[in-house]
Write a structure and sequence with these properties.
alpha+beta; 5-stranded antiparallel sheet; two-stranded antiparallel ribbon; 7 strands; globular
């Protein structure tokens, strides 16, 4: 079958395709180009079916199949390259547990009373985001074996039933991490999150401003100002409601450049559904 690709009649097309692959691989915004190329190949296939003899069709079919495989690769590659920044999201465990939904501590035990990592999420400047970019890149716990202790401490799963965290980390990698593979492999992705948490000590910044997890109400403005003072950039704040319906501090969004290293000013902030005064629940 492959011999048909290198038939003299088809060799120029094949060389062109390889050049196109290289060109598109270097282009960050290539989703539309890939889909247009796919349609072009399908149209070409239909024309060839009407034009070529049965013998020639064997060569044509071989080339078309290779083209479609290359385009499938480009679709994955483009998706993993195409984002503008990360949201680095930390959540307060007291607000996760203090709702109508129950929470379960990890098998390693109750986490410390500190913000835990929720995720590192590629995003676009228009507020949308890519997800599940590479179905072939599955979570592999052996890739993060050296980070396990730090992940259990700083990136714990609070969902039920109680778990060792693998299901949570697998979800984060496959939904979000695969969309940043042009910058970070699996180990680098989780390591980036851990390093960012060290840079952004939210609890320390809030306590320095007199804001403590004591079930008291604090102005949303004062929480934003305290984190901005401590981190250097304004955060996005997401709230949820406790079982009594009170608005409470739930998640904090910081924006990070595409390398996953530096905190930056947010191009766009998420809508947090917070009241003007929110509770900082105990944990």
């Amino acid at each position: 079958m492959l011999s048909g690709i290198f038939h003299p009649y088809f060799l120029p097309s094949f060389v062109y395709l390889i050049c196109l692959l290289i060109q598109l691989s270097a282009n960050q915004h290539c989703h539309s180009k890939t889909s247009k190329l796919f349609r072009k190949v399908v149209d070409q296939k239909q024309k060839e079916q009407r034009t070529y003899s049965a013998g020639t069709m064997r060569y044509s079919t071989s080339l078309i199949l290779i083209k479609l495989l290359v385009i499938q690769y480009l679709s994955v590659l483009c998706a993993s390259q195409d984002f503008d920044f990360f949201y680095f999201v930390q959540q307060w465990p007291g607000a996760y547990c203090d709702t109508k939904h129950s929470c379960c501590y990890p098998k390693s035990g109750k986490p410390a009373a500190d913000f835990g990592i929720h995720g590192l999420w590629p995003n676009y400047k228009d507020g949308s985001y890519p997800s599940n970019c590479d179905p072939d890149s599955v979570f592999d716990k052996s890739e993060i074996s050296e980070l396990m202790g730090s992940l259990e401490k700083s990136w714990p799963s609070m969902s039920c039933p109680s778990s060792n965290g693998y299901r949570f980390w697998s979800h984060e990698w496959e939904k979000h991490g695969t969309c940043s593979e042009s910058e970070l492999d699996q180990k680098d992705y989780f390591q980036a999150g851990l390093k960012l948490k060290e840079k952004a000590n939210l609890l320390q910044a809030l306590k320095k401003a007199g804001i403590k997890p004591d079930d008291e109400l604090y102005s949303l403005e004062s929480i934003v100002a305290a984190i901005k003072e401590g981190v250097g950039h304004a955060p996005g704040i997401e709230c949820n409601k406790d079982s009594a319906g009170n608005s409470q501090l739930y998640q904090v969004y910081l924006c990070v450049d595409t390398s996953g290293q530096d905190i930056i000013e947010c191009p766009i902030l998420p809508k947090g559904r917070c009241a003007s005064a929110i509770q900082f629940p105990k944990f």
